[in-house]
Structure formats: structure tokens, C-alpha cells
Specification:
The complex is a heterodimer of chains A (244) and B (438).
Chain A lengths: L2 E5 L6 H10 L3 E6 L2 H15 L3 E5 L8 H6 L7 E4 L7 H6 L1 H29 L3 E5 L12 H21 L5 E7 L20 H13 L4 E4 L3 H10 L2 H4 L6
Parallel strand pairs in A: 1-2, 1-4, 2-3, 4-5, 5-6, 6-7
Helix pairs in contact in A: 1-2, 1-7, 5-6
Chain B lengths: L1 E2 L8 E2 L1 E3 L4 H10 L4 E3 L13 E4 L6 E4 L5 E5 L4 H8 L4 E2 L11 H6 L7 H4 L6 E7 L5 E5 L4 H7 L8 E8 L1 E2 L4 E9 L2 H10 L5 E6 L11 E8 L2 H4 L15 E2 L11 H14 L3 E6 H5 L5 E2 L10 E9 H18 L6 E6 L12 E9 L2 H16 L3 E2 L9 H7 L3 H11 L8 H6 L3
Parallel strand pairs in B: 3-5, 4-5, 16-18
Antiparallel strand pairs in B: 1-2, 6-7, 7-11, 8-12, 9-10, 9-11, 13-15, 13-17, 14-15, 14-20, 19-21, 19-22, 20-21
Helix pairs in contact in B: 10-11
The chains are: A alpha/beta (244), B alpha+beta (438).
């Protein structure tokens, strides 16, 4: 059985995504800090799709444990999907560097650590796929979340470099830029209904994008055009806007 | 946030909380003076609306499944769509399913849903062995026919008013293929339709689409649709793996259509199309289009526009069905208020305190909400009460208390159990307040 490792499996996208891979016959490894929940999720996946599934405790920011975590997986995965990330508190980040550092670790530096460990293994094996879920927020800074957004920008650039590096080794790297998603992360905040995707829709996009070998996808697709328009606004104008 | 159910009426401002653990549910119950549970919001009106709403959608894990007996235990937020997705290809099917798969197990219990097989299989509660409920004081009670049976029967069809359903154990049903052997018979009028139902009682599934605008001799013109789960031998040579079917397509209705789109003329055209589509004869169809013909249109409720719509579903005892149905259809036909969807079905026997079905015929009619239709409903209420019938709480948004009390004779027993387990009346909905259930 081929396995897919989902990092950041506490995300709302993780379960619908795991269902899609399980349905396609993959075994599922779920990894995140919220271990107890993952045990429940793994058991649920096993019952639904009669594939193997297991839960692992994993903390993106504990980089010293990453190698050990990867070595302990019973079967080395055929693919990894990284959903890890955290919005953090922008205002707190402005005052307290520790908060900013946590946000950067959760969205960027910690991911560099674990994905390099996995990438090195895949490169040696000359097979595998790596999917990194970054964000449209990383394409342009806004005052409301620029620490998070800059970490995502770093992650996006990391993934494109990794894609370039692993291409000769036949390892497929896909970058995902989701827009608004109806998740715990934004619960209670007002998001424009019509452009806010459900976690299931984003999972569908990731699965079909990965299966068809895409390098970069937006989810939903129309964010390509929203971001194109947004990025065309010149900086002298954008700095004057009250961007939430 | 703004919340509304399938009928898009009423739209209310409510605090919606989506717990993912039992502890979170307990904390919400403790901190809210009154609340109601909500799943996928497929009830038409205000059954799952209140100022505080507990969404069960993150409590959707399947906890165990017995491959030999089909017994399944799952959390209440698991949807029928998820169950079909996981189990049809392994040869298991829902024992009872309504006309949409986008409902949760919790909702199925609270509404005690029925399907096209009610006359042989009963409602969902007939297949339910036990459930776990969180009461208003935060304790968890396991109830079944044998233990806390009063709570069990008040919860089946109890509209979520006894507690928050956490888990349920029930049986899935063996199937050989994912296909249905379907037979369609046309009925020229309501009398013929009733006779056909009786004559075809041995079919597992039966339902009729009625053209509500037909008049006089063809009043109640309909297409009776019968079905059986097809066996491997029956379909064997047609399909390589008869349990696997392709992921169907779906057509989203992305925006509300303007209110004028549905009117007598367009409904007439639609009815003609339905009538033409259902060609008399036998065929094999996938289970999806057979059970869930409207589910391929995602958000089809938007067809009714922003004014919203409701469904008037009633059941009449067998003895008075023939005369009662004719009177109701005549009244609707006279009013000219076209019902886009009108479904007739024969019910069998039924247990439960507030469960809707009773032996006899049920008719479900969709109407856009307007002063004219609300006035029509009041007239229909009289006819239904006169003939000893009652209305379905899950579809209702406007039933007056008197009509409810006349229809549901065991309401006193329900109150006794509710007082015993929820004396502080923690679990309430806009509907329960209106009809005097809390």
C-alpha cells in the first residue's frame, strides 16, 4: 500500500483530503499536534475506506524532532501534503518578536525543516510528490496580516525552488494558493460568501491538481484573476488603502 | 451570523457554534440558556433555528462498523451522503432514506425520516438500535428500546427537543448492486393512483409525482415510480462492477433566481416535462437519480427566489385518504398556486410519539411563500384536520398550535418525558415555541 503523509492534519481540509486519497487506495498518515483528535480521524478513515491509517504527534516548530519523526514512520510515504500553518496575531507580532517568530516557524521555517528531510529522501528514491499549501495572502502584504503573509511568501518561493531542484529526480512539487476557506481559522469572521470555498472544495482541487501533475494551483480557480487584479494596483496607491 | 434552513424562510440572526468534541458540547450547553442542535439544515422551516445553534457538522466520525451484520455506530453529524460514499461500493445501503442525501444521522433521528419504502420498512427509527444523548445537565445517556425507552421514543421524531444526539447505532442493509430495477406506471387521476399504490404494495419502493395543476377528470394525474434493489443476475451482463458507479455530475444553482421565474406557467411546463420524462415501463437506474433526483441541482432551493418557499406535507389515515386527497387537490387546483414538486406516497404502520408517518397516504407540496399560499395553507389545514390527518414538523414553518395538537395525539406523553429529562427547557426551537412543544 502506498501512503500519503498529511502534515498539519488538524486542518479542516485534512479530513476531506484524506478521504479522497483513501478512496483512491492510499494508506493515510496523519500528523499534527492534536494527536487525540487524529486517532479518532484515523480510525474513521479505516472504517470508511478499508485502508490503513495512523496518527502521529508532530510539531512543526520542534525542528529537532523532525528527523526522528520521519524515521519512525512505519512505511516511507509516496507523497506528502503540508497543510500546516497558523494565522497568529498580527498586532501582537508587531509588539512581541516571539509571536512573530512563532508565526514564521509555523508557516515557513519549520516547514523548511521537515520538507527538506522528506525531499532528501524522495530525491534519493527518485519518486514521490510534495504538496505545499501556501496562501494568496503571500502574494501581497497587507497591514492586517503581513507577518503571516510574508512567511507564506517565503514558503511559496521555497516550494518553487524545491520544484526546480527535484524535477530531475522525478519528484513532483505542487504549490497551492487557497483564498478564503470556511475553516476554524476564520470562524466568526465575516468573509464574502460567494468567494469563500468549503474545505471539501479545496480538498477536491488539491487532489485533482496533484493527480494530474500541476505545479501551481489556485483554489478556487477564480483567485488567479482576483490576485492578478490586486497585484496590478501600484504600490503608491495600495499603501494608502485601508486593507483589512 | 445569518442562518436559514432549506426553505430560505425565515432568515434569522443566531450564534452558531460548531463543537468537535463532547467536552465542547457540554460547555456550550452549560453556557446557553436555550439552544437547538442543527445538522445540514435540510428541514424546510424553523425546526432547527433558535438564537443559539449547535452545529453537529464537526462531530462526524464513524466509530465502528460490523462487516458481517451491517451494524454501524457513528457520531450524529455524519451525513447520509458520506455513508453512501463509504459503504455502497462495499454492498451496503441505508435502510431508510429521504429524498435528499444531504442530511445528518442526527437530523434523520430528530425528524424520524421516512423514505419510499415506508410501507415495508418503517421510518429511520425502526432501524435504530440505540443512541447516546447529552441532556440539559451535561450528562450522557445511552438509550434504546430496552433502556431509557421513554427517552428513546421521545427522541425519535422529537425534533431535537430532548437533548443533543451525540452518537447513534443502526443497521445498514445489504445490497447486491448499486442499481434499482425501476417500473413506471402512469395514473390518469388520483383514484387510479391510490389503486395502483395498493396493487403494488409488494414493491419495496414506491412514490408518485403528481401534477397539481391538472383539473376535473385528470385531477391528480401522476406517474407512479416503483423500485427494487437490482440483483447481480439482473444487471450482471451490463456492468463490470455493479456496486461501483461513477461520481455523478452536479449542476449548481449559483444565485437566487428572480421571484417571478416560478409561476403557474413555468410549473405547467415543468409538469409536462416530468410527465414526458417518466415513460411507462421498466428500466435499471443508478440509486442516485432514483432516490435523490433533485440532489444533482446543488442549492435548488434558490429556484424559488429570495422570498423563500416551504413544503406542505400532510398524511391522512387510509380510510379518509381518497376523499381527503381529492378535496385537497381540488382546492389547490382551484387556487392556481402551482406546486412545482408534488409527491404522493403510501405509509405503513408507525411507532413513536411525534413521528410523522401514520398508516395512510401522504402528499408533499412545495410552494413559494406568499400571502396567497399562506391563506391557502389555512384552508388546507382545515381539510387535513377534518380528515384526521397531520402535518410534518420537518417541512413546516407556519403550522398553528391547534393544528399541531389535533394531529399529534401522543403529545402529552412527549411532554411527560421532556419534563423528566429537560425540565429547565434548555432545548427549544422557534418551531417548538410556536406549536407549544417547549
Amino acid at each position: 500500500m502506498k501512503y500519503v503523509l498529511i502534515i498539519g492534519a488538524g486542518s479542516d481540509i485534512a479530513r476531506p483530503l484524506a478521504f479522497l486519497y483513501a478512496k483512491a487506495g492510499y494508506g493515510i498518515y496523519l500528523a499534527s499536534r492534536s494527536y487525540e483528535q487524529l486517532v479518532r480521524d484515523a480510525s474513521d478513515i479505516k472504517i470508511r475506506y478499508t485502508v490503513d491509517a495512523a496518527a502521529f504527534k508532530f510539531d512543526v516548530s520542534h525542528t529537532t524532532t523532525h528527523q526522528q519523526f520521519y524515521d519512525a514512520l512505519p512505511v516511507k510515504p509516496a507523497g506528502v501534503i503540508c497543510l500546516a500553518g497558523s494565522l497568529g496575531d498580527q498586532q501582537k507580532s508587531e509588539q512581541d518578536y516571539n509571536e512573530a517568530k512563532n508565526v514564521m516557524e509555523a508557516n515557513y521555517t519549520g516547514l523548511v525543516s521537515i520538507l527538506h528531510i522528506i525531499a532528501n529522501d524522495f530525491e534519493k528514491r527518485r519518486e514521490g510528490f510534495i504538496v505545499g499549501v501556501s496562501s494568496v495572502a503571500g502574494e501581497k502584504g497587507r497591514k492586517s496580516n503581513y507577518v503571516y503573509a510574508s512567511a507564506k511568501a517565503g514558503f511559496t518561493t521555497f516550494l518553487s525552488g524545491l520544484r526546480n531542484r527535484l524535477y530531475p529526480a522525478h519528484v513532483h512539487v505542487m504549490t497551492v494558493h487557497p483564498g478564503f476557506i470556511r475553516t476554524k481559522m476564520i470562524e466568526g469572521r465575516a468573509t464574502p460568501g460567494i468567494i469563500t470555498a468549503s474545505p471539501e472544495e479545496v480538498a477536491d482541487d488539491i487532489f485533482s491538481g496533484q493527480q494530474s501533475g500541476k505545479d501551481f494551483i489556485y483554489s478556487k480557480w477564480f483567485w488567479r484573476f482576483i490576485m492578478l487584479g490586486f497585484k496590478m494596483i501600484p504600490e503608491p496607491i495600495i499603501k494608502k488603502l485601508d486593507l483589512k | 451570523m445569518k442562518v436559514t434552513n432549506w426553505g430560505n424562510y425565515p432568515i434569522i440572526e443566531a450564534q452558531v457554534m460548531t463543537p468537535s468534541t463532547v467536552e465542547e458540547v457540554r460547555a456550550i450547553i452549560a453556557s446557553s440558556p436555550e439552544l437547538i442542535a442543527r445538522g445540514l439544515g435540510r428541514c424546510y422551516g424553523d425546526s432547527s433555528l433558535n438564537s443559539t445553534i449547535v452545529s453537529t457538522l464537526r462531530m462526524n466520525h464513524i466509530l465502528s462498523f460490523n462487516e458481517q451484520t451491517g451494524e454501524i455506530t457513528c457520531e450524529s453529524g455524519v451525513s447520509f451522503a458520506e455513508l453512501l460514499d463509504a459503504f455502497v461500493s462495499r454492498g451496503w445501503f441505508l435502510p431508510v432514506t429521504p429524498g435528499t442525501k444531504f442530511i445528518t444521522v442526527g437530523g434523520a433521528i430528530a425528524s424520524d425520516v421516512h423514505g419510499k419504502n415506508h410501507h415495508v420498512a418503517g421510518s429511520f427509527s425502526a432501524h435504530l438500535s440505540s443512541m447516546k444523548l447529552m441532556l440539559s445537565d451535561g450528562t450522557i445517556v445511552q438509550c434504546s428500546r430496552d433502556s431509557h425507552s421513554d427517552l428513546f421514543w421521545a427522541t425519535c421524531g422529537g425534533m431535537g427537543l430532548t437533548g443533543i444526539i451525540l452518537e447513534a447505532t443502526f443497521h445498514l442493509m445489504r445490497i447486491d448492486t448499486a442499481y434499482i430495477r425501476q417500473r413506471i406506471i402512469k395514473a390518469r387521476n388520483i383514484d387510479e393512483a391510490i389503486d395502483l399504490f395498493e396493487a403494488n404494495k409488494h414493491w419495496t419502493y414506491s412514490v408518485a409525482w403528481i401534477d397539481c395543476l391538472s383539473k376535473a377528470g385528470s385531477l391528480g394525474r401522476s406517474a407512479l415510480i416503483l423500485g427494487e434493489h437490482a440483483t447481480k443476475q439482473e444487471v450482471g451482463y451490463r456492468y463490470r462492477d455493479p456496486l461501483k458507479i461513477d461520481k455523478g455530475f452536479s449542476i449548481p444553482v449559483p444565485v437566487f433566481l428572480p421571484d417571478f421565474v416560478l409561476n403557474t406557467y413555468t410549473v405547467k411546463v415543468f409538469n409536462e416535462l416530468v410527465n414526458t420524462k417518466y415513460i411507462q415501463g421498466d428500466s435499471f437506474v443508478e440509486y442516485g437519480p432514483f432516490f435523490y433526483p433533485l440532489d444533482i441541482f446543488l442549492d435548488w432551493n434558490r429556484i424559488y427566489g429570495r422570498r423563500g418557499f416551504t413544503q406542505y406535507q400532510f398524511v391522512l389515515p387510509k380510510a379518509s385518504s381518497r376523499t381527503g386527497l381529492r378535496k385537497v387537490l381540488e382546492r389547490i387546483s382551484r387556487s392556481g398556486e402551482g406546486s412545482f414538486l408534488a409527491v404522493l406516497k403510501l405509509f405503513g404502520k408507525q411507532e413513536g410519539l411525534l413521528s410523522f408517518p401514520q398508516e395512510g397516504f401522504t402528499l408533499a407540496l412545495d410552494f413559494a411563500i406568499s400571502p396567497a399560499t399562506l391563506a391557502l395553507f389555512r384552508e388546507l389545514d382545515e381539510l387535513v384536520c377534518e380528515h384526521g390527518g397531520r402535518l410534518y414538523l420537518t417541512k413546516d414553518v407556519r403550522m398553528p398550535k391547534e393544528v399541531f395538537d389535533k394531529g399529534y395525539s401522543q403529545v402529552q406523553q412527549f411532554h411527560t418525558t421532556k419534563d423528566k429529562f429537560d425540565s429547565i427547557k434548555k432545548f427549544q426551537s422557534l418551531q417548538s415555541k410556536r406549536v407549544g412543544l417547549s
